[in-house]
Specification:
The complex is a heterodimer.
Chain A lengths: L3 H6 L4 H7 L19 E4 L2 E2 L3 H11 L1 H6 L15 E4 L3 E10 L3 E10 L2 H8 L6 E7 L8 H7 L2 H6 L8 H6 L7 E8 L7 E7 L1 H6 L10 E4 L7 E4 L4 E5 L2 E5 L14 E5 L4 E3 L4 E5 L4 E6 L8 E6 L2 E5 L1
Antiparallel strand pairs in A: 1-6, 2-7, 3-4, 4-5, 5-7, 6-8, 8-9, 10-11, 10-18, 11-12, 12-16, 13-14, 13-17, 15-16, 17-18
Chain B lengths: L2 H9 L4 H22 L2 H18 L8 H20 L7 H10 L6 H6 L7 H10 L2 H11 L5 H8 L3 H21 L4
Helix pairs in contact in B: 1-2, 2-3, 2-4, 3-4, 8-10, 9-10
The chains are: A alpha+beta, B mainly alpha.
């Protein structure tokens, strides 16, 4: 069936659309994908030079900004700064910072051009790498990454959730002073709790056109075993876990949907003040037995007295 | 933050326009995107595409109703993603079913294939919408613009599912008649 009818219907006047407007009713379903006969899970996270990242790019996305948070490698051994990189003749990708609380990981990457082709890629408007993350169910590598990638068809590649810079203006703002480009990558593991992941940068345009990827041959193994402290909260029935990078709620099947309202995630601080995590959220998902929110701003967990999740208070254990 | 304040931020190329718009309308856009994509990660991507489109278009656009405007951008972005994912695989999934339904409203595949610019249908299509009773129009647009399930529409409007189906069927026939009588298809 030709889908031009959908475009014709898209020409409806705004006065009619306003009349028919729907309400916010959808919940976000938690999904986990498995393939290769269940032997490996290829989990595609979101790269986040995103609109969401733009909310707080000045506090988290940039390498320099991460340092400006006052976090040092000495006081925070969970951080890896500038020690993991992969390159080909065009580009170098470095994991500047890796934060993992056992449930989720947040990584700050830098991308540097090494030749004209690499520079052309980085200057291409609205094009950023699409990191594809693989980890094994046995918590260690069991697949040769090339084999795993060959197993993936186009649809699976498209499962990778790319995000673009919101505009040429903001994209420029995300270039570091040394000419490199910073972006972030977040993913929720849930109970899979992997120790190592493989990150393969994807050239989204090439994956659509079957051209050679500018990232050809590049991959990076990162240790993502739990490094951050996690503070446990409870409402008597369900648990909530808070770390510097986000919230995980485990509710059992059929729990409440992910709260999307402005008061869905509130931290009550020790001085009685309230902090709305949605002001700085990067990615949130829920609807199954877990829901989570990855923050774009480091959370001072020691200063949190209790957490209101979906209007219900969770107190420190 | 009000719509006019948001538009002012867009006009000033202030990046808070994006974050504030997402905060205020993100959940709504997510609902619109999920109706089409049925996948939360794709819906998130779609919202970002819609906000990017808003950033690029405002100004010169100055929408009177931000929610409707963003709903339209989100629908367009979601359909682009859906088309990318289903290139060469038409007919699959809930959108495929919807297109089957809409075949009542089109004269033929060939006629649709010959259309070069759908914008030429704008006036005719809106005249058709204007000719419908309000309830009929709401049901039609909820189904084929916002892509809600029949069940959701029935529940939201307090109607039976069979009533919604009958209204949709009659409305599609009417659309076909108008398009044919004007030689559009």
């Amino acid at each position: 069936m030709n889908d031009k009818m959908l475009d014709i219907i898209g020409l409806a006047d705004e006065k009619y659309l306003q009349e028919a407007e729907i309400k916010n009713t959808k919940t976000i379903k938690h999904r986990r994908r498995r393939f290769s006969a269940g032997m490996a899970a290829a989990v595609i996270a979101m790269s986040t030079v995103t609109v969401g990242a733009a909310v707080a790019y000045n506090t988290f996305v940039h390498k320099e900004s991460v340092k400006n948070l006052g976090i040092t490698e000495e006081s925070n051994p969970e951080l890896i700064i500038g020690t993991k990189s992969t390159e080909n003749k065009h580009l170098r990708l470095t994991a500047d910072t890796v934060l993992s609380d056992g449930y989720m990981v947040h990584i700050v990457f830098s991308l540097e051009a090494l030749d004209d082709e690499g520079r052309a890629y980085m200057e291409r408007e609205n094009e950023v790498p699409m990191p594809t993350m693989f980890y094994s169910e046995s918590k260690d590598l069991i697949y040769n990454i090339k084999t795993l990638r060959d197993d993936m068809n186009t649809k699976q590649l498209q499962m990778a959730n790319y995000k673009r810079a919101i505009s040429s203006q903001t994209r420029k703002a995300q270039f570091n002073e040394d000419g490199s480009f910073s972006f972030t990558f977040s993913h929720f593991f849930g109970n899979d709790n992997p120790e190592k992941i493989y990150v393969v940068p994807e050239d989204y345009r090439a994956s659509r056109t079957n051209e050679a990827s500018v990232f050809d041959g590049m991959s990076l193994m990162l240790d993502v075993s739990k490094g951050l402290d996690v503070k446990e909260f409870s409402n008597g029935a369900n648990k909530l876990y808070l770390s510097k990078i986000g919230i995980t709620v485990i509710r059992g099947k059929g729990g409440e949907p992910l709260p999307l309202g402005n008061n869905g995630y509130n931290l009550i601080l020790k001085d009685g003040s309230k902090e709305n995590l949605l002001d700085n959220y990067g990615f949130a998902q829920g609807g199954g037995d877990h829901s989570f929110l990855i923050s774009r701003k480091i959370i001072d967990i020691d200063n949190v007295e209790s957490v209101f999740y979906n209007g219900i208070e969770y107190k420190a254990e | 933050m009000t719509d006019s304040e948001l538009i002012r931020l867009f006009g000033a190329r202030d990046e808070r326009a994006i974050s504030e718009t997402k905060l205020r309308y993100g959940a709504y856009c997510f609902t619109v995107a999920m109706n089409i994509l049925r996948n939360s990660e794709d819906a998130e991507e779609c919202i970002n595409d819609a906000l990017l489109a808003a950033w690029e278009r405002i100004p010169p656009d100055a929408p009177e109703n931000m929610q409707t405007y963003l709903g339209k951008l989100t629908r367009n972005a979601a359909l682009s993603i859906w088309r990318r994912q289903h290139a060469g695989k038409r007919g699959a999934g809930h959108i495929g079913l919807m297109l089957e339904e809409l075949s009542d409203a089109a004269a033929s595949e060939d006629a649709l294939d010959r259309i070069e610019d759908v914008m030429t249908f704008k006036e005719t299509f809106n005249r058709f919408l204007g000719s419908l009773k309000k309830e009929q129009r709401i049901i039609f647009l909820r189904r084929y613009f916002y892509m809600q399930d029949v069940e959701e529409i029935a529940s939201a409007l307090g109607l039976s599912e069979s009533k919604v189906k009958v209204v949709l069927h009659r409305t599609r026939k009417k659309l076909r008649k108008i398009l044919e009588s004007e030689g559009s298809l």
